[in-house]
Amino acid sequence: MPLSELFPSMLWRHFATICSFPHGSGQETALRDQIKSWAEARGLAARLDAAGNLILSKPATAGCENRVGVILQAHLDMVCQKNQGNPHDFLADPIVPVVENGWVHAQGTTLGADNGIGVAAALAALESSDIAHGPLEVLLTLDEEAGMTGARALETGDLHGKLLFNLDTEDWGELYVGCAGGLDMTVHRHVVREAISAAFVQRKISISGLVGGHSGCDIHLQRANAIRLLARLLQDIRKQTDLRLVKMNGGTVRNALPREAFAVVAVPACDANILDLLAQVTQDQFRMEYAGVDESIRVEVSEGGNGSMLRAADTQTVIDLLLALPYGVRRWNHAMPDVVETSNNIGVVNLNGEFETILMVRSLTDAGCNELAAAIEACSRLGGAQVARGNAYPGWNPDLYSRALKVAQTVYREQYGEEAKVKVIHAGLECGLIGDKYPRLEMVSFGPTIRNAHSPAEKVEIESVGKFWEFLKACLKAVPVAA
């Protein structure tokens, strides 16, 4: 079924166009320019700011000129993840949406509903002729998934609205008024290599088949992390033979739970059979351990490649670091017991020359973020590694009395006869950075139901997209007159 046959057709038509343009982080230019041309052809004001963010605006409809101005905000980039062996080229190939059992997903890749559905809704709001609204702006940012550089570079004076509806959350029926801040960290360690003895053979050990997911929204679901599983298996093998690391890779981005990882190792030829035996036993163990969460974990051993091996001490230290670095939920919030306060994701590991692993710390509080970062630094020092703190972005402090939230709560109550859930999300929204530049801006975030974001299993619920659209239209109509 073509997306344009789904409800609301205008929104889905825009989403289909978005899917036709490669738009991973750092590759959004063609999509952005297409949207800019589309807006200009319809007489809408369209301009790029100094950072390359796209700002569109539409005058108030007749009779609504004195209403408070609203900004609709979403990001143009998507996380690019694909299943092992999938030939999809994210730099050249379009995303191919599939309609199935009430959901839309892609063919073995991320779909980009995060945040393509939000972008599509904003464009549909601009295109629609049946929404009574005050002055309307749309802010489409760049590079949200890889560092929020678009929102970070936003300048004061570019936006004029007083209320902001962020369209980048993923649970229909929930209104978000706060989010976690984030900090990127990179752990690096020098390693010493030596020639592989003739008495050793090389093998490749692979972990795959994991569900993966968003490193913030899904961190509490206890899904497996391929890098951690690989480290556990390597440690078990080292207990039985002189395993040496040759190469290691796992994960692709710091803000996704890694689904795949592999290590090329060297072991004494006389012990090579240990790897095959442990692979099967460990696969069964992992599947039992993650029953109901990650039931398709695969552990495979194949022929290895060429290269030099780490000396024994460095092999052990690399494994120890991956096992000892804090991972997962660090602390739950006391005031909101169902909300994760602080967490860390081990997102990427590389051992092609030196050892490097990339982490992402998230916390609702600066103190929580700094405490966990300090623990990571201490652990790394014990392992002889250096740590660099990278991009950081602030959290978004809740304002339970904002006009944006009041509008959303009132509309939801009128549409559904019950109260919407007001929540804080353990993920990074651009609201924190935007709020730093525009401290008087009143914000709320909402969106349709999206599952397994940042993984090839990403999907968006069709029915919730329709509800999201009707809700957005009603919110725009319900914005009050400026005081």
From TrEMBL:
Highest rank taxon of the organism: Bacteria
Q: Which CDD domains does this chain map to? A: M20_pepD
Q: Which UniProt keywords apply?
A: Cobalt, Dipeptidase, Hydrolase, Metal-binding, Metalloprotease, Protease, Zinc
Q: Which GO terms describe its cellular component?
A: cytosol
Q: Name one GO molecular function term.
A: metal ion binding
What Gene3D superfamilies does its record include?
A: Zn peptidases
Q: Which SUPFAM superfamilies match?
A: Bacterial exopeptidase dimerisation domain, Zn-dependent exopeptidases
Enzyme Commission number, as recorded? 3.4.13.18
Residue ranges of every copy of the Peptidase M20 dimerisation domain listed in the record:
206-272
Q: Which GO terms describe its biological process?
A: proteolysis
Note the InterPro entries from the entry. Bact_exopeptidase_dim_dom, Peptidase_M20, Peptidase_M20_dimer, Peptidase_M20C
Q: Which reactions is this enzyme annotated as catalysing? A: Hydrolysis of dipeptides, preferentially hydrophobic dipeptides including prolyl amino acids
Taken from the record, one Pfam family name reads: M20_dimer
Cofactor(s) required, per the database record: Co(2+); Zn(2+)
Concerning its family, UniProt says: Belongs to the peptidase M20C family.
Q: What is this protein called?
A: Cytosol non-specific dipeptidase
Q: Which organism is it from?
A: Formivibrio citricus
